[in-house]
């Protein structure tokens, strides 16, 4: 007798990577096979998605500026 067993993983994340083990057994014996599962590195150039608008403030006022970025690997950002 034959069989087909399928493991389907949708929307893979880093948490899904690692060793996948298949164990098959019957009254005669048990066998195991392992495979390594990795995610290929996605690469995208850094991009500025949103940023604060230019503004004028009075001396002594407080202001908060932001930049929303994306890219892969995840880019670092700073405001000077």
Textual characterization of the structure:
By secondary structure, this protein is mainly β. The chain has strands at 18-25, 30-37, 44-51, 67-72.
Any key phrases for this structure?
80 residues; mainly beta
List the helices and strands and how they pair.
Layout: E1 18-25, E2 30-37, E3 44-51, E4 67-72
Antiparallel strand pairs: 1-2, 3-4
Main beta-sheet strand count, sense and barrel state = 2 strands, antiparallel
Give me the side-by-side strand order of the main sheet. 1-2
Segments where pLDDT lies below 50 for 5+ residues? none
Our estimate of the beta-strand percent is: 35-45%
**Overall geometry:** rod-shaped
User: Total strand count, please?
Assistant: 4
Structural class: mainly beta
* Order of SSEs: EEEE
Provide mean pLDDT, rounded: 88
Gyration radius, in Å: 25 Å
End-to-end span in angstroms? 69 Å
Number of helices: 0
Helix content: under 10%
């Amino acid at each position: 007798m034959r069989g087909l067993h399928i493991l389907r993983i949708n929307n893979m994340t880093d948490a899904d990577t690692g060793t996948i083990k298949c164990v098959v057994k019957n009254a005669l014996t048990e066998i195991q096979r392992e495979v390594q599962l990795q995610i290929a590195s996605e690469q995208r150039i850094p991009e500025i998605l949103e940023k604060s608008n230019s503004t004028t403030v009075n001396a002594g006022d407080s202001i908060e500026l932001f930049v929303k970025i994306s890219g892969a690997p995840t880019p670092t950002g700073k405001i000077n």
